[in-house]
Amino acid sequence: MLLIGHYSKTGCMVSGKIVPLVHGVGFTMALMSFLNCIYTMVAATDCLIFSYYSFLPGQMPWMVCDEDLKGKICFGYNEIRECQRASLAQPCLKSNSTLSVMRSLSAFHYRRDVLKEIDYADNTEHKISLFKLAFSAVSCVILALVTDLNFKSGKSSKVILIIHITMQLFVLMIVTFLSTPANNYSGQTMDSGFLDVFRVHYESLLDPQKWMYASVFVFRSMNAVSVGSSLIGSYMPRKSQADLFAVEVTLILLFLYGLGEILISTCLTSLAINMQVSKNELSVYFQDNLFVLMPQIFGMSHVPTKLLTIIFYGYLFFTNIWRAQLILSSIYETFADIKPIIHIYQFYIRTFSCILIFILSLPLYMEGYTETFLHFVRFLEINYMAIIQLIVTFSILYIYGAQKICDDHHFIYGKQPDTFYRLLLILTPALFLIYWAINYTNMSHDRWFSIFFTHPVFIGTYIITQVPHLLGILYKMLFYLKQQNMVHLLKCEDDWGDPNPQIRNERIIYHPRKENKYFRRLDTCKHDCLRYNHILPLIVAEEAMNHRLSFLLQKRNLFTKSEVGIGKSPSFDY
């Protein structure tokens, strides 16, 4: 998340430049922008679904109205699919998967289980609990350190840089851990320490069935950081400062966005307990939602809860659609040869816009239309990721073939791609397709597919194909940081010379072959480089000019005014 989001000037696509396997090729940049658009559309779809639920009569879909929900919660794709096939006759809960997602991304599971166990109505004398106090203190310290280190003038020392990175990772750990579903709070009370609740979340991560939510959250966080970096970085004067500033600000925004509901609603619950609000006046158990709790605390119960919810999710929907449009416009400006793929995503945006217009114009009080559209939304909620993933993958493989990518890789690095690289290009999308196909279809119920999916050979192959990408990202990130003189643990001046443009220009003149060493590989190339032959004369001419300038500079230093007078020619012996 940090590696990719840090260098996303225009969304995720420019971060493709730091992947060495397809360095400088539009394939990776387009792929990263596709992932960005996919998860932007995921967020827009969620906001659209929640906005639609807000229009419906009755309670919100994530409010508990049935005691039968104490059983198993759907975590896997197939379990969610089975939940979707349930009857539509439930008066309150429209989707068990929606409840699971809301439990994983909000403070619902914490407040409901904890408050129910301690019976908060009988403990109104409690002050702010140690958990919330420690949690708020740690959060404030992290935000203060990150902000202070960000705006610290001058070069950072090694210790401060290490602390800086550690604080960023700690923020990500807290956000990830506290955003995973953890419904086992037995033994926890309002006075439980921060580490106790942290341990519960850590144990929940050990359950493989709950890893799906952690992975989805990481991808959405990457999307938020990349988009925030592009937006904030465009308004900063210096690019290097813009990158650092964008990362810090987006991390803080992500921290507040991921934990804002937990922090605010939990503090409001403490405030209500300290104000000795009775259980009848504060409906936390059944109407556990920030938009329900906040008006009750401040004495504004007459404010319609659904209006606040509609405004909130409507704002998020239009924001995500605007982000997707921003990414597409950046692709238009950067690439001129991937317009067919852009048309695909324009179709996505137009489709979601039509859905929004359809919702606004649909007579929701008509039961038949409502039920039909609800079926469509449920189908979209479950299958849109697989559909988009398949379409995008095949579009990429069709427009950018593996052979063309190998040729570009050969042109850039001056060597013929080996068999491992070709297999890597073909095997990576194939494994992704197999992974999604098994998860999104009924093949996972089959015994043979289950054995294949859990076989160590498949898992090992999957890991082997991903490790070069991750190592390449790390290597190129450090290389780029060192080149831009942003890593203070390494002295860039030793390898890259003085940053003064005049001195650097003279260094290029005195060492022409060092500057053109990557292009020199084309001279001895035995592969198919005929289409690049028009570049070779330009390189040779530039080298000849640089050699001539170097000779003239040396001659100027030898024949000074003291040795050769003005208007006099040097002797033949000299």
UniProtKB/TrEMBL annotation:
Keywords: Amino-acid transport, Disulfide bond, Glycoprotein, Ion transport, Membrane, Metal-binding, Sodium, Sodium transport, Symport, Transmembrane, Transmembrane helix, Transport. GO terms for cellular component: plasma membrane. The keyword Transport applies. It comes from the Eukaryota. Na(+) binds at S221. One of its GO terms (molecular function) is L-amino acid transmembrane transporter activity. Disulfide bonds join C65-C74. This is Sodium-dependent nutrient amino acid transporter 1. It comes from Laodelphax striatellus.
